Amino acid sequence: MTRALTLTAALLAALSTAASAVTYPLTLTDDLGRKVTIKAEPKRIVSALPSTSETLCAIGACDKLVGVDDYTDYPAQAARLPKVGGLYNPNFEAMIALKPDLVIISKYGKLEPTLTQAGIPVLAINPETYDEVFSKTLTLGKVVNREAQAKALVTTMKRDIAKVEILTKNAVRKPTAYYEIDPTPYSIGPNSFMGVLLTKAGARNIIPASMGDFPKVDPEFIVKANPQLILGVDAKTAGARPGWTSIAALKTGKTQEIPAELGNILSRPGPRLPQALRGLAKIIHPELFK
Amino acid sequence: MTFLLLLAVVLGTGLGSVYVPPGEVLGALWRGLSGQDLAGNDVIVWQIRLPRVVMGVLVGASLGVCGGAFQGVFRNPLADPYLLGVASGGALGATLSIVAEWPRPVIPLTALLGALGAVAVTVALAREGRRFPPTRLILAGVVVGSTLGAASTALILRGEDRARQVLAYTLGDLGFSGWRDVATVLPYAALGCGALLLLARALDTLQLGELTARSLGVPVERLRLLVIVAASVATAGAVAYVGIIGFVGLIVPHVVRLAFGQGHRTLLVLSALLGGTLLVLADLLARTTPLSQVGIVTTLLGGPFFLWLLRQSRE
Predict the structure, then answer these.
(1) Are A278 and A284 spatial neighbours (Cβ–Cβ below 8 Å)?
(2) Chain A residues with CB-CB distance to B292 below 8 A
(3) Could you tell me which of A76, A43, A38 has the C-alpha nearest to residue A57?
(4) Is the pLDDT of residue A190 over 90?
(5) For a FRET experiment, which of A102, A104, B153, B295 has its CA 20 to 30 Å from that of B262?
(6) Does A248 touch chain B (CB under 8 A)?
(7) Which of A49, A71, A106, A184 to mutate to test the interface with B (most CBs of B within 10 A)?
(8) pLDDT (tens digit, 9 = 90+) per residue, B114-133?
(9) CB nearest B43 (choices: A186, A218, A223)
């Protein structure tokens, strides 16, 4: 019996050294500023963020997922898993019933205290800026013992992004653009995750960095900036707004909604970022993709 | 007061996030009025700023007048135009449109229906035969308000990505107010406020107590119902486009009372002027500072100011 145990232990040790360089217990500071210690390689993970679900699957940890939030819809393997609610209506009972050894949450919502009280390890990982998309991918790789895959994914993503950037860099004219994320209206600043994509896709954002990442914009500012391209609003809605018919984008018919599928990927700081960039670049510079 | 309102309108039209020199503002107004072609900054002044300012005047005036009338008819200093559920009804209507992603022009329609519907339910609940006792009206208003509020919240949670838009509505926002919107709100404001001004003298009599008013020949119940209907029409129009703007309807009549006494005719007229002034200035702040929403400005500045005023009046 003891011999069997020793054998198994030795075998396991050999396996784990072969597979990884991550040693557990692993201690790191999460995005809520908490010091978290992960005792062993997580095997039953619940992801409360669509981007986290996508990243885990992209680094070969899809089979570790046992539950996802309501908004996870990609990849198919993750989308089929049991749903555990959304940001504001988390279903704690469903989460706890899945017996996870780690729940990866966003820094918003109030999941952490309840889960911690239930004795379930919680980690907040929340990529918000463009650079964080890559750094948090590497962090996730470390947490789930898939460091090599995470590094490979980051390399591939950066390469695919560069491919698009080479095209847009050489675009003859870069239109000034206003990108609306909400009809109140809210737009995106150049330093936000989506703002960086807009610039890389070959547009010049009319919102200055000084306005912040997701500013509420005074409509008269937009009219004054007179963008050549308006994204995120359909022509009919934009034309009905007071004074907007004088904007260049409306005169030349360069006003369009972002297709739902693309909008969905664009709002996700995850592994499909190159795809999102390509989709956006195709809208801004259709001539480069013929 | 009239001077103050004019000053606010001048400031509101002259200033904004885009700088337009005074000469150009005047030129734009002239070209707009005379129907000439608009060029450059003219569009900003004539099609964006001015209608927004006018909308501020209409909504602010409506809230001021309705607040004053409600405080008078309920003889309750804490009454405001939203007392009987107009706000929560309007919010529910707007939320419904926003979450269902109906086209933008539909939002004010559903908000209007919601606002008027909520008041109708409140009045029906409060009715005792042919009477409408104030206490029952207020209680019914509270119940209707919280019930509809919960319904709105449930809707928002179903359409999470629209939550920001709904939040903007419930905090009050004058953005995208154009001439067409102004033309839509104008009849509601004019009808409602006009009717309330006609009822001013009767409201004065009511301040002597219900029994005295009755013996002086004031049909108290009918007066109460008329005030409620008139105020609801004006407030519903106000709420439909710009959402729920706090504090204006509560504070403005008190400020006027402290400065000019109790007579309802003066009170309502001056409340209209001061309400319009305050809202235009609050919106100017909202447009040009990170406070960003007119409702946030009125509440943030209104609260402390009101407390200060109370202290002053005591001394």
Answers:
(1) no
(2) 216
(3) A76
(4) yes
(5) B295
(6) no
(7) A184
(8) 999 999 999 999 999 888 88
(9) A223
- Parallel, antiparallel, or unpaired: how do β-strands A26-29 and A35-38 relate? antiparallel
Q: Does A246 touch chain B (CB under 8 A)?
A: yes
Which residue, among B76, B3, A270, has the nearest Cα to B84 in the 3D structure? B76
Joined together, the tokens standing for residue B160 give 């999470």
Contact A185 B175 (CB under 8 A): yes
CA distance A104 to A125: 7
Would you call A182 helix, strand, or coil by DSSP?
strand
Among residues 67-86 of chain A, which lie with CB inside 8 Å of chain B?
A: 86
DSSP secondary structure code for residue A90 in this structure = B
Mean pLDDT score of chain B, rounded to an integer? Answer: 89
In chain B, the percentage of residues whose pLDDT exceeds 70 is 98
CA-based torsion, B156, B160, B164, B165: positive or negative: negative
Distance from CA of B178 to the nearest CA of A (A): 5
Residue A17 has pLDDT above 70, yes or no: no
B159 vs B3, higher pLDDT: B3
| Banded pLDDT at A16 (limits 50, 70, 90) | very low
Span between the terminal Cα atoms of chain B, in Å: 24
The beta strand positions in chain A, using DSSP E, are 26-29, 35-38, 45-47, 65-68, 102-105, 122-124, 176-182, 186-187, 204-205, 229-231, 255-256
8 Å CB contact between B185 and B191: no
Q: Please count the other Cβ atoms lying within 10 Å of the Cβ belonging to residue A37.
A: 10
Angle at which helix A193-200 crosses helix A130-143, to 10 degrees, equals 120
Dist CA B241 CA A129 (whole Å)? 35
Q: Please check whether residue A234 is in contact with residue A255, taking contact to mean a CB–CB distance below 8 angstroms.
A: yes
Nearest by CB to A223, from B44, B157, B160: name it.
B44
Question: A225: part of which helix (H) or strand (E)?
Answer: helix A219-225
| Contacts of A35 by beta carbon, 8 Å cutoff, 6+ apart | A27, A28, A29
* Conformation bin of residue B307: beta by default, left when phi > 0, alpha when psi is -120 to 50: alpha
